[in-house]
Design brief:
The protein is α+β, with helices and mostly antiparallel strands. It contains 4 helices and 8 strands. The protein has helices at residues 2-16, 39-52, 124-147, 151-195, and strands spanning 21-23, 26-34, 57-63, 68-74, 78-79, 84-97, 100-114, 118-123.
């Protein structure tokens, strides 16, 4: 019975899991939140939340008639390694309808900084490419390690694998932080709608 309950729980979690998906050339996170409230009641609740947190959110669109609120959000500085860092930011939109809020986060921009000198704006795809390239390079190094017989060279390869793994972990941390932020926003919307 416990195994069946656990299986059902895992299926529910899997079905409700959200990820960032490519939609019309932009990577988007979308979540539909159902509520018993009407549009005229939902809008002021979410607008107040954004206004109360105006240091964190910059409101871009405020159209009560259409039921659209959009805002920009910037996360804290994250490091890829000792010399490379990034400021992730994105645009969020609330599409407010009767008994429903559609939360969308997209236009993800990574303000990458290299050695404190160069700032380059990259998109979410560049982060995914970075993760893919690091993974491929690590796998190549592992293959090279299994073929290498010279112990000195094996030691150098192991060091390089460690360095690349650290880079991969940091890149994955940026990806996870973005997804966690989107999920936190959804949780906050649900909490705000359930309070009133």
């Amino acid at each position: 019975m416990k195994k069946l309950s656990l299986l059902c729980l895992l299926i529910v979690v899997f079905m409700n899991a959200q990820s960032i998906e490519l939609v019309n050339g932009d990577y988007m996170y979308t979540k539909i939140i159902n509520t018993s409230k009407k549009k005229k009641d939902i809008y002021p609740i979410l607008k107040k939340w954004l206004t109360d947190n105006s240091l964190q959110y910059f409101i871009r669109t405020d159209d009560q008639d259409l039921g659209i609120l959009s805002f920009d959000e910037r996360l804290s500085l994250m490091h890829y390694n000792d010399t490379q860092s990034t400021f992730p930011s994105f645009n969020s939109t609330f599409e407010i309808q009767n008994r429903k809020v559609i939360y969308k986060a997209g236009h993800i921009v990574l303000q990458d900084n290299y050695g404190g000198m160069t700032n380059i704006k990259n998109d979410y795809k560049s982060l995914l490419d970075r993760i893919t390239n690091l993974t491929l390079h690590i796998n190549e190094l592992k293959d090279q390690l299994t073929r290498e017989r010279d112990e000195k060279k094996r030691s150098d390869i192991r060091k390089e694998i460690d360095i690349e793994n650290k880079k991969l972990n940091q890149s994955n941390a940026v990806k996870i932080k973005l997804t966690d932020c989107f999920a936190r926003n959804v949780d906050m919307i649900i909490k705000m709608l359930n309070q009133n």
